[in-house]
Amino acid sequence: MKPVLPGATLGILGSGQLGRMFALAARRLGYHIHVFSPDKKSPAGQIADKEIVGDYDDLDAIAAFAKKVDVVTLEFENIPIDAALAAEKITPLRPGPQALHTTQHRLREKTFLKTNAFPVTNFVAITDALPTDFPFPAILKTAGFGYDGKGQFKVTNQQELITAWQQLDQQPCVLEAFVPFEREVSVVAARGLDGTVVHYGVFDNTHANHILDITTAPAILPTKAFKDAIEITSGIFEKLDIIGTSCVEFFLNHDGSLVVNEIAPRPHNSGHLTIDAVTTSQFEQQLRAVCGLPLGDTSFQSPAAMANLLGDLWEPATPNWSALLQFPEIRLHLYGKDEARPGRKMGHITALGKSGAHAAGIVRAARAALQSPGV
Ligand code: AMP
User: Fold this and answer.
1) How far apart are CA 39 and CA 235, in angstroms?
2) Which of 252, 311, 316, 331 is the most buried (most CB within 10 A)?
3) What pLDDT does 1 receive?
4) Cis peptide, bond prior to residue 38, ω within 30 of zero
5) Site to substitute for ligand 1 among 103, 104, 123, 139, most atoms within 8 A of C-beta
6) For residue 123, what pLDDT is reported?
């Protein structure tokens, strides 16, 4: 299969910040970009040559979009599978519909993990009745279309379970055992057309209100846990035949064992620090993989940390950008979103440091400065 070379046109399904950072990497390498999503003036659309505004259910519009590009990738796993199949009929879609279909639905994802002997927390499917003997504490999650803790409840007894399921309109759900983890970690990696896998090591993630808050690289963890995390990630990529950059999110238990929480079949928020800290960012890696090019170097210049900037920082007043930009180590990334809402990812900042902890201290201090009174 011939590689898709600079000068060609790449299509992205979805148009948020992940698409934007992919488009920026593609632009730097001399590619053209078309994006397809229901949104106008989107973060990715602002960078693209063409922003096609359409509904994912409009398969004719998807087909017309696919005809104009050399390869299609995605930045959002909740693309309806029929849209992915319609695009794939016309142009290579990477990663393919199998990876998308499995990972966009928690029940299918967990079943895939269990069937293939990857470590996953104990779970049951809930379709039309609740189990009466599932141990508590547990987490009830909608089976489809959930992210950043949306559509999920921690429950500690049967009554809470009943109430939580009612609040989720008795949709199909997954009930899973609560994992009393020590930490959350992730592996961002890329798999090329020839099956080669490259990775960025293991990242340490802390969350606030179920949303990623700070990522630190490298994670400090036992050698065996590191090896296991990489091996599990490569195994999952192979089984799903992923072509592109994807991420596996893990819970690290106190005994050093790992449990897979989620697979994201696209670049991941925890990988944003690769833009500033690594020769080949997760977005360039995605591009190289989907274009059939050799994958790039993943070594870090130094330890690094990333802090998300959520819409909450726009309250009570516009963030104090001058205060932030006085930090010489800080690289600021904003996603071009007009409206700041609580919980909405508006941008992120990255710092390199002598250690992960040092870099994390810098991003925390810089972010706090955003809320200092302006001049
Ligand atoms: P998710 O949307 O499934 O990634 O969940 C968002 C966050 O909720 C995770 O990053 C964890 O902090 C927490 N969480 C989800 N599932 C579990 C679980 N089974 N045990 C403990 N914490 C969980």
Assistant:
1) 35
2) 252
3) 75
4) no
5) 139
6) 98
- Taking CA atoms only, the protein residue closest to ligand 1 atom 12 is 210
Structure confidence at residue 144 (pLDDT) = 83
Residue spans of the domains in the chain: they are 9-93, 122-177, 183-369
Radius of gyration of the chain (CA): 20
Helix intervals (H) in the chain = 17-28, 59-67, 81-90, 97-103, 106-115, 158-167, 223-240, 274-277, 282-290, 321-325, 356-369
- Tell me how far the alpha carbon of residue 210 lies from the centroid of ligand 1, in angstroms: 7
Architecture of domain 122-177: 2-Layer Sandwich (3.30)
Q: Say yes or no: do domains 122-177 and 183-369 share a fold.
A: no
Class of domain 183-369: alpha beta
Q: Tell me which residues of the chain have a pLDDT lower than 70.
A: 146-150, 375
Class of domain 9-93: alpha beta
Residue with CA at minimum distance from ligand 1 atom 18: 178
What is the pLDDT at residue 373? Answer: 86
pLDDT exceeding 90 applies to what percent of the chain? Answer: 95
DSSP 174-197: EEEE----SEEEEEEEEE-TTS-E
Residue 348: Cβ-neighbour burial (10 angstroms; 0-12, 13-18, 19+):
buried
Which token pair is 134? 């599932």
Q: Is 93 exposed, middle or buried (0-12, 13-18, 19+ CB in 10 A)?
A: buried
| Strand-by-strand arrangement of the 138-142 sheet | 123-126, 173-177, 138-142, 152-155
pLDDT at residue 314 in the model: 96
Location of structure tokens 């011939």: 2
Is ligand 1 within 6 A of the CB of residue 205? no
